[in-house]
Amino acid sequence: METNWVFFVAMIFSVTLNSTISDVINKNLERTLDITSQLVKTTYKLTVEETSGKPLKDYEFIVREPNLSYISVKDGFNKKVEIEEIQENGSNLLKFNLTFSEFSSKQTLLIETVSTKNILAYPSHIKQNDKQLVKFVGSLYLYSKYPTYAQKTNVILSSPNILSHTQAKPFLVSSNKIFLGPYENIERLVDEELVIHYENQSPFLTVNTLGRTIEVSHWGNIAVKESIHMTHTGAKLKGPFSRYDFQKDGRSGQSAVKSYKTYLPASAFGVYYRDTNGNISTSNMNLLRDSVELELRPRFPLFGGWKTQYILGYNVPSYEYLFSSGNEYLLKMHVIDHIHDNMSIDEAVVTIILPEGSSNIELVTPYSIKRRQNDLIHTYLDTVGRPVVSFSQQNLVESHISQFTLKYRFSKISLLQEPFLVILFIYIIFLFTIVLLRLDFSLTSHFHKD
Amino acid sequence: MNRNSKILNNKIAGYSSLITFVVLLIAWIAGFSSRLFAVIRFESIIHEFDPWFNYRATAYMVQHGWYKFLNWFDERAWYPLGRIVGGTVYPGLMITSGSIHYILHILNIPVHIRDICVFLAPVFSGLTSISTYLLTKELWSPGAGLFAASFIAIVPGYISRSVAGSYDNEGIAIFALQFTYFLWVRSVKTGSAFWASGAAISYFYMVSAWGGYVFIINLIPLHVFVLLIMGRYSPRLLTSYSTFYILGLLFSMQIPFVGFQPIRTSEHMAAMGVFVLLMAVAALRHLQSVLSRNEFKKLFIVGGFLAAALVFVAVVALTLMGVVAPWSGRFYSLWDTGYAKIHIPIIASVSEHQPTTWFSFFFDLHILVCAFPVGLWYCVKQINDERVFVVLYAISAVYFAGVMVRLMLTLTPVVCMLAGVAFSGLLDVFLQEDSSKRMPNTINALQESDEQDESLERKSLYDKAGKLRHRTKQDPTHDSGISSNLKSIVILAVLMILMMFAVHCTWVTSNAYSSPSIVLAFHNSQDGSRNILDDFREAYYWLSQNTADDARIMSWWDYGYQIAGMANRTTLVDNNTWNNSHIALVGKAMSSTEEKSYEIMTSLDVDFVLVIFGGVIGYSGDDINKFLWMVRIAEGEHPKDIKESDFFTDRGEFRVDAEGAPALLNCLMYKLSYYRFGELKLDYRGPSGYDRTRNAVIGNKDFDLTYLEEAYTTEHWLVRIYRVKKPFEFNRPSLKAKDRLIPPTNFISRKNQKKRKGLIRNRPIVVKGKRTLK
C-alpha cells in the first residue's frame, strides 16, 4: 500500500513539475567545495525564483557526484525542508524533491552534502618518500533542471601545492583556495567537469566495516563495543618500506597514518583497545570536559593500502541514556560514534542487546536504515536469551552521528531473576555436598566401630 | 562415656576436615593468585612459543569440533610438507580446555577460549596441590600433606611452567602425574582393583597430556621391581600392578600420537618386563605353597635365571630385529649429557635441555631442597610399601633434574612432599607438648592439623599399623629432653624459614617467571617509567593484515608457532622440530650468501623472510646470537656447503665487526639483520651502526639487497620482515656474475650519484616490459 502511495505522489509531482518547469530559475548560487580531507563537503547557498510569480512549492535538486553519503537542506529561515528521494530507473543520478514549508515565489536553500570516494590518489601508487597527490573530479556548474542565472564556487584545498585544475575563466587561485566564477546564464543540465589535481596528505582512512554492539544492562551499565576494519585508501605504497627513512626523515611517509583521535562520550570508562593478539599497548587516553579523547596508534603506521582491525570498547552509565517510566523504557544512543575526524564508513552494523525479558521493541532511527532479523543471544545467567535488535547502513560519515531511540517494555521483577539463579545454584551445590557426604555409597557393608 | 568420646571424635573430625578444607582452599587461592603476575602486569595473553601452538590447536578444536581436530592436517606449517596435527599432538590439554569451554557455553557463560587457556594452568595448580595433599597423606600423614600442598602451590619450580598464560602440557600434566601416583599408592595400599583402575584412567589422562608419561610407566614398574627385590611381594601388589598395567597399556594406545609405542619402544619395555616378572613371582609363590621347600629353591633359582635371561634376550633380539624401536635421542641425552651436543644439535640448541646448575636448584626450590633429604631420611627410616615408592620417585627425579633444566619440574612435587614430611616431623617433635597451650593462630592450625592426622591415621590405616606405633614411641623420648624455650626458638626459626620461603617464591615468580616474552617491558632508568616493547605483536599483526592469506614466511624455527598463532600465515619450520633436514635447509638459506639462498628460497616458495634483530635495543635473544646453531644444524645436513669454521675468525672468535669472518659478513642472516643499520646512529656521540647487543660496530655497513626488499621493520627494529622478490622484479635476471665485467672493488665505492641514476633510469623499462608481458 505504502509504495503505491509513494508512487502516486511522485506521479503527481512529476506532472506538476513538468508543467511549470520553464518558470523556475536558480537566481544565484554560492557553492563551497571543501576537499581538504578525503571527503567532499559541499555547501550550496541557492536562491530560487519562480519568474511567473506563483508561489514555489517544491524544487528538484540533483546531486551529480556519486557516492553521496549525507544531505541536509534548510531554507532561508533555517527551517528544515522536507526531502524526498525520487526513484528513477536507469539513472545513476540522485534526484531529490524538496518541499518548502512556506510557499513564496522566492526561496533560499541551504544545502549541505558530503560524499565519499570522489578524491582519488593520482598517481595511485607512490613510494614511501613521495607526496600523496590526489585528483578531484566534480562538476564545474550546478547540474540542475533549471537554468542558473549566476553562480560561483569556492574550492578549499588541503595545500597550496596545486598541480593543475580546470581553467574555466574567470578564476582566481590564492594559496590553498580556488575561486571559480562568477559564471552567468548557465543553461539547464549543463554537465562540465571540474578537475583539480593537488597535494593532499590528510589521512585517507576508510572504515570498511564497523560492528557496533550496545549491550544494555539494567544494573546501571551500558557496554559499547566497536569492532573496526580499517584501510588506508590513499595512494598505495610502492616498493620497500624503510624504517630507517621513516624514523630519520620527517618528510618520509607523510601520508601514512601514525595515529588518530577518537572521541568517546564524557562518561565513558573501562576503555579497551585491542585486537586478536591482545591489547594494543600504544594508545593514550585524555579526559576532556565534554568527551574522552583517545589517541589511538595502530600497531604499525598505516601506509597506502595497508589494513588493520581492532576492537574498541567502553562502558557508560545507563542513567544518561536509558529513561524509564514504569515498565516502559527508552534508550537513546548514537547510531554510530566518532572514530576519527572526517571518517568514512563503508558499512556499519549496529546491534543492540536488551536485557532478558524485554518485549514490545520499537526502533526509531534518524535516517533510513536496513533492519536485520531480530535475534536472541545467550550470555551470562540467561535462560531464554536476550532480544537483539540489529540494523545496518552503508556509506556513513561524521554527520550521521545522531541518536536513535529504542522503546521497549521490561518488567522490573525479572531483574531479580539473575541473583535468584545464582542463589539457587549455590544452594543446590551445598545440598548436593551435604547429601553426598552423609550417604554411604560403598558396595560392601562396613562394620561400624567406634 | 562412650557417647561422649564419640561426640568428641566427631567434633575433632569436623574441625580437622574444616581445617583441611580451609588450608587446601587457601593453597589453591594462593597458588592461583601468585601465578597472575603476568596477567596483572601485562594482560591476559598466551606466553612464549609452544603455548601459541596449543592455543591455536585448541581454538581450532573449539571452532571445528573434535573429529575435525583429530583429522586436522595443518597445511600452514612445515610448508610444503604440512603437519598431521591430530596424530602428532598430545591432545589432553586441548580436550581439557575445550571441554571447559563447552560446559561453560552450555551454561551460557560466553568466555573466550583464550581466557580459558590463559587461566587453565593456575586453576590446575590448585588441583595439583590437592592431589599432592592426597598423595602425601597416603605416604605419611595429613599434616605433612597440608604442608606439601601449600608448598607445591607456590614453589617456583612448578610455577615456572604454570603461570597464567603459559598454556603448556606441563600445566595439567603435573596434576595428572601426582594424581596417578596417589591412586597408585592407594591401590598398592589397599590392593583393590578399583583404585588400580582409577590409577590407569588417571594415567590415561596423563598420556593424553604430556610425553612425560614415560616417567610414570617406568617409575611404577621400578617401584614394583624394588618391592619384589625387597621381598615385599603381596597379592595386593599383584592385583594393583596387573590391573594398572593392562588397563594403562590399553588406554595409552588409544592416543593417536602414542599408538603402538607402548609395545614397540624401549622406553616402555621395563613396564612389560616387570609385569612378566611379577607374574612369574606370583606363579612361584603359588608353587611355593604347593611344592616342598627344597624343590622350590631349585626351581626358583633355575627358573628365575632362565626367565630373566629369556626376557633379556627377547628384548635385545626384538630391538635388533627392529620390532622394538631403540631409545630415542632425547632419552639418550638423559643418560649421556654430552650425547645431544654431538649428535643432535637441535636438541642441544634449546636452553631448557641444558644440564641444571646448582644455583637453579636453590632458586627453584629454596628451603625445600634442604629439607627434602630430611623427609627422605624419615621415609627410609620408617620404610613401608608406599614409602619405597616415594624414595624411588625422589632418587630418579633428582637424577633427571640434574640432567636437564626442564625436568626440574618432575622433581618439584616430590621435593614438596618430602619437605612436607620433614616439616611435619619437625613440628611433631616440637609442638607435641604445647598442645594444651593457646598458640597463635597459624601454629594452632598446624598443630590441630597434626592432631587430626593422628586421629585420621588411626582410622585410615588398614595395614602396617606398626608405623603409628613407631611414632608414638618416638615422640615422648624426644619431648622429654627438650625445654620449652628451645621448642619455641625452633618453632620460631621454622616459621621464619617458611616465611622466607614464601617471600622467595613470590619474588622469583614475579621476577623470573612472569614475563610473557612476546611483550617486553623495561624500566626507564632516568624517570622510572615502564616502557613496553610490543614489536613482536606489531610485526605479526602486520603480517596478518597486510600479506596475502597464503603467504609463506621463512624464519628460524623458534618463531614458527608464534607466526602461525598470531599472524596466521604459513611457516616453513616451527617449534615442533620433527624434520631436521627441513630446519637445516632453512639454516642453510640463512647462512648462505644472498644469491645462493635466493635459490633455496625460490625452491621453497618463500614470500617473506622474518628475522629478529636486537641490535637497536640490546635484546640478546636475537637471531645473530642464535646464528651459530643455525650454522651447526645446517652443517649437519649439508657439510659440503656450510662449515661452522668459516664463520669464525682466524682466532676462533664469532664477531660481527670489521674483523669478523667474511662468510658471516656476507651471509643472508647478517644482511637481513643489518640492512641499513650501518646508517643508523643510536646516539649523537657514538659511531653509526653500533650494535648494542654485541657491543661492536658492524663490519659490513654499506650493502644493498638484490633479491629481497625490506617489507616491514618494527618500531625498535626488533623484527624485520623482507619480501623475496619475484624473478622479474630485479632488473638483471640474465646477468650472471661471470658474464659481467667485474669492476675492481674500489670502483664500486666511488660510484657517484650520476652513475647510479643511470642504472635506475634503465630499470623501469625492463620492469615495465616484463609486467606488460605478464
TrEMBL record, chain A:
- What GO cellular component is one of the record's annotations? oligosaccharyltransferase complex
Which terms in the Gene Ontology molecular function aspect does this entry carry? glycosyltransferase activity
One of its GO biological process terms is: protein N-linked glycosylation via asparagine
The signal peptide here is 1-22
Q: Which topology term describes how it sits in the membrane?
A: Single-pass type I membrane protein
Q: Which residues cross the membrane?
A: 420-439
- So, what pathway does this thing act in? Protein modification; protein glycosylation
Q: Which InterPro entries match?
A: Ribophorin_I
Sorted alphabetically, the keyword list is:
Endoplasmic reticulum, Glycosyltransferase, Membrane, Signal, Transferase, Transmembrane, Transmembrane helix
Compartments (UniProt record):
Endoplasmic reticulum membrane
User: Which protein family is it in?
Assistant: Belongs to the OST1 family.
Q: How does it assemble?
A: Component of the oligosaccharyltransferase (OST) complex.
Q: What does this protein do?
A: Subunit of the oligosaccharyl transferase (OST) complex that catalyzes the initial transfer of a defined glycan (Glc(3)Man(9)GlcNAc(2) in eukaryotes) from the lipid carrier dolichol-pyrophosphate to an asparagine residue within an Asn-X-Ser/Thr consensus motif in nascent polypeptide chains, the first step in protein N-glycosylation. N-glycosylation occurs cotranslationally and the complex associates with the Sec61 complex at the channel-forming translocon complex that mediates protein translocation across the endoplasmic reticulum (ER). All subunits are required for a maximal enzyme activity.
* Descriptive protein name: Dolichyl-diphosphooligosaccharide--protein glycosyltransferase subunit 1
- Which source organism? Drosophila virilis (Fruit fly)
What phylogenetic lineage does the species belong to?
A: Eukaryota, Metazoa, Ecdysozoa, Arthropoda, Hexapoda
From TrEMBL, chain B:
STT3/PglB/AglB core domain sequence ranges = 553-609
State the Gene Ontology terms under molecular function: dolichyl-diphosphooligosaccharide-protein glycotransferase activity; metal ion binding
Q: Name one GO biological process term.
A: protein N-linked glycosylation via asparagine
What are the Oligosaccharyl transferase STT3 N-terminal domain coordinates in residue numbering?
19-419
What Enzyme Commission number(s) appear in the record?
2.4.99.18
Q: Where does the protein end up?
A: Endoplasmic reticulum membrane
- Could you identify this protein by its name? dolichyl-diphosphooligosaccharide--protein glycotransferase
The major lineage groups are: Eukaryota, Metazoa, Ecdysozoa, Arthropoda, Hexapoda
- Name of the encoding gene: Dvir\GJ23594
